[in-house]
Amino acid sequence: MKKGRRNFLKIAGISALGLGAKPVLDVFASSEEDAVVEAPAEPRIMRGPNAMTAPQWAMVIDTRKIESHSDVEPMIEACHKIHNVPEMPDKKHEIKWIWETEFKHAFPNLAGEYMSKRVEHLGLPVLCNHCENPPCVRVCPTKATFRNSQGIVMMDYHRCIGCRFCMAACPYGSRSFNFFDPKPHIEEENKKFPTRMRGVVEKCNFCAERLAVGRKPACVEASNGIMAFGDLHDPRSEVREIIDSNYTIRRKQNLGTRPAVYYII
Amino acid sequence: MPSNNQKLYDKDKVIAGLVIFVVLATFPFWYNLGKAASAPELELTDKAKAAEKCVRDTQYMRNEHMQLLDEWRDTVVRDAKRIYVNERNMGYDMSLSNTCLDCHSNKEQFCDRCHNYTSVNPYCWDCHIDNPKEAK
Amino acid sequence: MLELAIKGSKKYYGWLAVVLAVIGAGFVTYLWQYFTGLGITGLSRDVSWGFYVAQLTFLVGVAAAAVMVVLPYYLHDYKAFGRITILAEFLAIPSVLMCLLFVLVDLGQPMRMLNVIFYPTPNSVLFWDMIVLNGYLLLNLVIGWNVLEAERHGVHYPHWVKPLIYISIPWAVSIHTVTAFLYAGLPGRGFWLTAIMAPRFLSSAFAAGPSLLILLCLLIRRISNFDPGREQIQSLAKIVTYAIILNVFFFLCEVFTVFYSQIPEHMDHFKYLFVGYHGHGALIPWMWTAMGLMVFAIIMLVIPSVRRNEATLAIACIAIFIGTWIDKGLGLISAGFIPNPLHEVTEYIPTVPEIIITLGVYGIGALVLTVLYKMAISIKEGEASA
Questions:
Q1: What string of DSSP letters covers B6-47?
Q2: Mean pLDDT of C277-286
C-alpha cells in the first residue's frame, strides 16, 4: 500500500513539474507491475502532491519598484500569453486579465489635483482582486463564478450563461466579456491551456492551474520582484511579512469587498 | 346510444391527407432503409496501443467517458483537485487536452468518427484545443 | 377561447401581418447575434448592459397596469374597474413575456439559460427576478383566462382563483422591487446605489402602465363595439397623475441627495446624463426631453379640465409613456456604467441590429397583446349585444 502511494506521489510530482500528463503515463508504464499489485480500489480524486494551498491567497504589488512601462509589460505579457487572452481588434470588446493603468484610475477616490509626481505618472498593474467578500460571486445566478477553497474567485466557463451581472457588480472593472469568438484573435495559442468561447465572462484566475503544480502566478514570476504572492493567513508568509512591515492600501476598501491584492505606493 | 348513421365527410380528402401525413412522418425511415452507416472503426495511435489501458477500462470509457469528463471538469475547476487516481492506483492529470488527447492525438479518427456517427456535437473543442502536440 | 382570435376583419389580419413581419425581422437578426455573438450590439466591456436590459426594466413597469386596476377592484370593491380588469391583466402578460425575452436575447449563452434553475442561487437577485417574473406571468395568465372564460359563459369564476388574485397584488409589487434590487445592491455603481431605486421603479411603473392602458382603452373604443368606459379611464387618469408626480418627486429627492452631498461617485452619472461628463453626453437631449415630457404631463394632468378631456388626456399619457421610457429604457441602465468604476468613459449607443431585435421582441409583445385583447373584446362585445 505504502509503496503504491509513494510511487504515485513520485509520479504525480514529476508530472506536476511538466504540467502535462506525459510523464505520468511514461513513468507509470515503466513501473506498472508495482502499481497493479495493489488491490483494485475505488477511483478517487485528489490534489497534486506539489499543489500549493492556502486559505486565502494574496498578492502585494510594490509600485515603488516600478520605474517605467517596461517593468509592467512583462507581467501582462506572461499572463495573457499562457492564458490565451485574445487581442480583440475593437477596444470596446477588449479582454484583459491584468493591465496597466494610472493611479487616478486604479484609485479614483484617492487621487487628487496635487500629488507626488512619481505617483501621478505611475503606471501600475491592476487585476482581479480576488476579494474575500466578492460582489460578483454574490450576484451570479448560476454559481458560475465562485470563491474556491483557496480564496480564489474562479470562473466556471462551462456554466456561465453570459448574463454579465458579475460585470455590473465588480467595482474594479476586472471582468471581460467575449463579445465574439476569441479564437481568431489569439496570436499564439498556448495548447496547454483552454481558450474561452463567445458569450462567457472571463477574468484572472490567480493562476490556479499553476498553483496546482506548485508554481506561483505567471505575473509574479515575470514581475522581477515587484509582486509578491502568498498565504494571507500565514504570518510567516512573504506577503504577510511585507504587509506587516509596510503601509499598504487596497482598491476601494470602503466598499467592504476586502480585496486580496495589496499595493505599496 | 349507438348511432348507425355516423358518416365520414370528405372521405377521400381525409384519407388522402392521412396517407400523405403518414408518408411524410415516416420519410426518414424508409428513405434511409438499407443505408445504415456501419459503426465506425476507431483507430488507436501507437502511443494509445502501447499504453494498453486507458484511465479506466475500455468498456467503461466507451460508455461513460462523457460522465467521467464531466466529473473531471467540475472537480478541476470547482474543487481545485486535478489528479484522478483510478482503481489500479494510477494517477492522471485531469485534462482533456493534456491527458486524453496526449494519447489519443488523432482526434479525427478517434473522437470525431464516433461523435459524427452518433450525431453528437460536444462543445468541448470550442475551448479545449484539440491537439496539444502541435505546440512549439 | 383562442378561436375568437382567428376571426377578424381584414384590418385585423393586416395588423397581424405587420406585427409578424417585424417579429420575423427581429428573429432573423437575433439568429445573426446568436451565431456571431453580442458584439453586433453597441455593448462594450465598460457598458456591459444596454438596450435589452433597459427594455426589461421599463416593461416590468408596464406590467404594473394590472395591479393598479386589480387592487381597487378587489380590495376596495371599486366596481367600475370590473369592466377593465381583464384588459389590465392581459396587458401584464405580454409585458412580462417581453421582459423574459429581453433577458433571453441579452444572454451570451442562451442555450444554458436553464442553469439558473439547475444551480439555484438564492443570493443572486437575478434568480429571484426569474421567479417573480415567471410567477407574475403565470398568475395573470391563469387569472385572466379563468375570469374571462367564466364571464363568457355567464358564470362566476372558480373559487380557487380568488386567492390567486389576492396573491397577484403583492406579487406585482415584488416584480418592480426585485428588478430594482438587480441594480440597487451593487457596491461599485454609485448611480444605482440608492434605496429609492425600488420606490422610483414603482412610481414610474404606476405612471407608465396605466398610461398605456388608458391609450389602449381609447383605442379599443374607437375600433371595437366595446367601450371600456369613461369613468374607468378617468380613474386611471387620477392614478397616473399621482404616480407621475411621485416619480418626479422621488427623482428630485435623489438629485438633492446626490448633489448636496457632492460625492463624485454619485454625481458623475447624473452629470453625464444631463450636462455631460468630460465632454461626453450622448444622452443629454434625451434626458432633458424626458424631464420636459414628465413635467409637461404633470401640468396637464393636475388641471381637471385638461384631464377630463380625453383628447388632452391622451396627449399627457403619450408624454408620460415616452418620458418614462427614455428615463428607464434609455438613461437608467447605460448611465450606471458611465463613467466606469475606473472613472473612464466609454459611451454606449445601440446599433441597428440591436434595435431590430428589440423591435422584434416588442413585436412578439404586440402579437400576444392583440390576440389576448381580441379574445377579451369579442366576449365583451358579445355581452353588450346580448
A1: ---TTHHHHHHHHHHHHHHHHHHHHHTTT-PPPPPPPPPPHH
A2: 95
